[in-house]
Amino acid sequence: MKKHASDNQQAISSNQQIIRTLGQQKHELEEKLRKLGEFNQKSPEIFKEVEEFQKIVQQGLTQAQNFWNFSTNQFNIPSGKELDWAKASHEKYLKVAMGKLNKKAEKENFK
């Protein structure tokens, strides 16, 4: 009878450990799902920004091709409105850089 009770205790203990492990796995998966849900809400904005930046870069590439003087092997630097793409590109770069710094600062504050 004692052996049977001992076997039951081991089985109960083993099952409790499995329940704890599965509970932890469930919690981790719920956290991943929450983060994916957040990303899903933000992703249209992210991809829109990528498309906008792609257009800006394309403007710069087109301009680089159009302002290259093959006879003198020099680039004629455009001015004014023609350089709006460069300003927009720099602003996007600064926005991304500041975002990275803010995330790093947030992580440091939570340590």
Offer a quick outline of the entry.
InterPro entries: Bact_secretion_toxin. The chain has helices spanning about 1-65, 85-110, and strands at about 70, 75.
Summarize the topology:
Blueprint: H1 2-66, E1 68-69, E2 74-75, H2 84-109
Helix pairs in contact: 1-2
Attribute tags:
two-stranded antiparallel ribbon, 111 residues, 82% helix, rod-shaped, mainly alpha, 2 helices
Order of SSEs, N→C? HEEH
Share in β-strands: under 5%
- Biggest sheet descriptor: 2 strands, antiparallel
Task: Please mark out the parts with pLDDT under 50 across 5 or more consecutive residues, or reply none.
Answer: none
How many DSSP E strands? 2
> In whole angstroms, how far apart are the ends?
53 Å
* Global structural class: mainly alpha
InterPro entries: Bact_secretion_toxin
What does this structure look like?
This protein has a two-stranded antiparallel sheet. It has two helices and two strands; from the N terminus they run H-E-E-H. It has helices at residues 2-66, 84-109, and strands spanning 68-69, 74-75. The chain starts with a helix and ends with a helix. Helices cover 82% and strands 4% of the residues. The chain has one domain (2-109). With 111 residues, it is mainly α.
